[in-house]
Amino acid sequence: MTAYLAVAKFRKPHGLKGEVVVTPLTDEPADVFVEGRRLVRLDEDGKPLGQEFVINRSRPFHRKWLLQFEGIEGRDEMATWPQLILGVAKEELREPDDDEMYVHEIPGSEVVANGQVIGKARHLIEVPSGDLLSVDVGGKELLFPFKSPILVSIDRRARRIELDPPEGLLDV
């Protein structure tokens, strides 16, 4: 069975001619959102639901992307869409480097700060200023910006994320 990876989250229809706003879940949206690419609707576990969308046109839009799919001409058809997760067959995508992770690999990863294991990653939270990493630290959820200089390194093979949190954050 083909494995699929989430590459976009449907946000809302845009305009009157069938474009949609999506949040990229990939670091390489320009390489993924190309004309002719087939995106498949995924469930919460990353399993395909059978509904395919073929990209007819794409373009960056602020921090999001606008996509237009073949056969979708207006906004009415999309107005009732739920918050879809769209995926691509894994073999169509570039394998991540050792210092990168797929979004689905983050939960459960060991989180290290100042050379000490502080907890396990839960998930990423999307906010306007960028992603936040939710970390279970002794039963408490702490949030860390998931970017430099707080994010120091990622070791995909070891499933390890190293952070350099601001002084006092771990004392909360």
Could you explain how this protein is built, in words?
- The protein has two domains: 89 residues, Elongation Factor Tu (Ef-tu), domain 3 (Beta Barrel); 69 residues, SH3 type barrels, CATH 2.30.30.
- It is built from one helix and twelve strands; from the N terminus they run ββαββββββββββ.
- The strands form two sheets. Strands 1-2-5-4-3-6 form a six-stranded antiparallel barrel.
- The relative contact order is 0.17.
Describe the structure using short key phrases.
12 strands, 172 residues, mainly beta, SH3 type barrels, Elongation Factor Tu (Ef-tu), domain 3, elongated, 2 domains
Concise synopsis of the structure shown:
The protein folds into two domains: 4-92, Elongation Factor Tu (Ef-tu), domain 3 (Beta Barrel), CATH 2.40.30; 103-171, PRC-barrel domain (SH3 type barrels, Roll). The chain is 2% helix and 50% strand. It has one helix and twelve strands; from the N terminus they run ββαββββββββββ.
Number of helices: 1
Largest sheet: 6 strands, antiparallel, barrel
> How many strand units?
12
Identify the CATH class of the largest domain: Mainly Beta
Strand content: over 45%
Helical fraction: under 10%
Global morphology: elongated
Please give the CATH architecture of the largest domain.
Beta Barrel
Round the Cα radius of gyration to an integer and report it.
18 Å
Number of domains: 2
Spans of 5+ residues with little confidence (pLDDT < 50)? none
Distance between the termini: 45 Å
The spatial strand order of the largest sheet comes to 1-2-5-4-3-6
What structural class should be given to the helix and strand makeup?
A: mainly beta
List SSEs in N-to-C order. Answer: EEHEEEEEEEEEE
Name of the CATH homologous superfamily of the largest domain = RimM
- The overall pLDDT, averaged over residues, is 87
CATH topology of the largest domain: Elongation Factor Tu (Ef-tu), domain 3
